[in-house]
Amino acid sequence: MKILFVGDGQLGQMLGASGIGHGHECLLFSTRTNTVKPLSAQLDLAMSLAEAIAWADVVSWEHEDIPADILAAAHDKFLMDPARIKSLTDRRAEKKLFDDCRVATSPWQTYRDADELLKILHQAEQPLVLKAARGGYDGKGQWRFRLADNPVELAQQAGRAPGIAEHMIPFEREVSLVGARSKDGSICCYPLITNVHERGILSYSLGAIDPVEDELQQQAEEAFRRLTDSLNYVGVLAIEFFVVTDGKQSRLLVNEIAPRVHNSGHWTMTGANCSQFDLHIRALTGMPLPLLRLEPTLMLNVIGADQIPVGLWHHPDTQCHWYNKDPRPGRKVGHVNIRTANRDTAIKWVAQWAEKLQVLAD
Ligand code: ATP
Ligand code: MG
Ligand code: MG
Fold first, then answer.
1. What are the UniProt keywords, alphabetically (predicted)?
2. What residues contact 359, with CB distance under 8 A and at least 6 apart?
């Protein structure tokens, strides 16, 4: 098949590489330069967007902010309604989807401007997280409100653009579910992944390392089922959750979803017989979803560092991925997957390498 991916960042490149590995032809459309690219970004291809859309059997994406001209011109090449997917770039629509699907999430309300936000802050009875409705990622466009904070100052700052105010959740840990839904509605999910963030940005993920209670996995897959059925979704989608514990009982609250492949699924490139990228290609092209075989794997992000030390490239238990992006503090420029026996050894790897691999923004 011929697949056109919207976006030419690392996710697009890894999707394209996987597509090619399955015998498909793949092109990336850069939404930054408005050009169609074959997989090696250095080469230029003299194909217009209209030609690439006509060429493609199917259009997919690495990021859900699909430009309006592609929505219009490629509508029948998508396997689901792309406008619906794009609407989820607005946190208000995303939270409404959770409520509509009766998937538990942190209680929330919207504000349009500083005045509305100020009212919310004055009435707040517990700490809040404020999130700009649009454009936030890696913890950007977020503010914390604690009851001792000055509401006027914060409302001025955070209320410059519309957003949501949600309860701050005292979570026990963060996990994500990465899975795929195929055209016939069958689903295939990896076990819940434990994620650790530093300053709002994913630092590392533990794939198939922490034991997962059946009950929690079922809750997560039920949320996945409801959300993807409602979107009539085809392909890989990730759900980020907070694990909260009341007494001995653990339950999940959805934080946000990513209707695409996701950073917390990168460990599957090493730790699974079918990576999240392969899984997406299978779902897109109507291949059966696999039976998964998994090996415990740590995924350590490379953030802002200018290289991955040679010792890691040499190590027999590691697989290094470098995205060929200019490093700056807080920017994800690569990741290292590490086969590791258990949580203790994973944490030792983190203790040894995270500081060298991660330069965070202030
Ligand atoms: P991503 O890069 O994952 O898309 P993002 O910028 O969209 O991130 P969120 O995932 O909403 O932002 O938040 C980033 C992190 O901030 C979360 O992983 C979590 O650690 C923390 N956080 C967000 N919302 C809350 C909340 N309501 N209560 C407590 N912590 C929160
Ligand atoms: Mg996000
Ligand atoms: Mg997130």
1. ATP-binding, Ligase, Nucleotide-binding, Purine biosynthesis
2. 303, 304, 305, 327, 329, 330
Task: Take residue 35 and report the two structure tokens written for it.
Answer: 């050009």
* Whether residue 314 sits in one domain with residue 287: yes
The rounded distance, in Å, linking the Cα atoms of 115 and 106 is 23
Which of 143, 255, 264, 301 for mutating ligand 1's site (highest number of atoms within 8 Å of CB)? 255
The preferred substitution site among 128, 142, 146, 196 for testing ligand 1, maximizing ligand atoms within 8 Å of CB, is 142
The answer to whether residues 198 and 330 belong to one domain is: yes
Residue 174 Cβ < 6 Å to ligand 1: yes
CB 264 less than 6 A from any atom of ligand 1: no
Spell out the residues 6+ positions from residue 165 whose beta carbon is closer than 8 angstroms to its own.
108, 109, 110, 111, 117, 120, 121, 124, 128, 129, 130, 145
Residue 142 among known ligand-binding residues = yes
Question: What pLDDT, on the 0 to 100 scale, is given for residue 246?
Answer: 86
The structural domain count of the chain equals 3
* Predicted local distance difference test score (pLDDT) of residue 46: 80
- Residues 327, 183, single domain; the answer is yes
User: Is residue 145 domain-shared with residue 267, that is, in the same domain?
Assistant: no
Q: Among residues 205, 207, 212, 211, which one has the least CA distance to residue 297?
A: 207
Q: Residue 138 C-alpha to ligand 3 middle, in angstroms?
A: 7
- 161 and 273: one domain? no
Residues 225 and 275 in one domain: yes
Q: Dmax of the chain from CA atoms?
A: 61
ipTM above 0.95, yes or no: yes
What CATH number has the domain bearing residue 135?
3.30.1490.20
- Domain coverage including residue 65: 2-78
Three-state secondary structure call for residue 203: strand
Positions of the chain with pLDDT under 50: none
**304, 330 in Cβ contact below 8 A?**
yes
CA of 24 to the centre of ligand 1 (A): 36
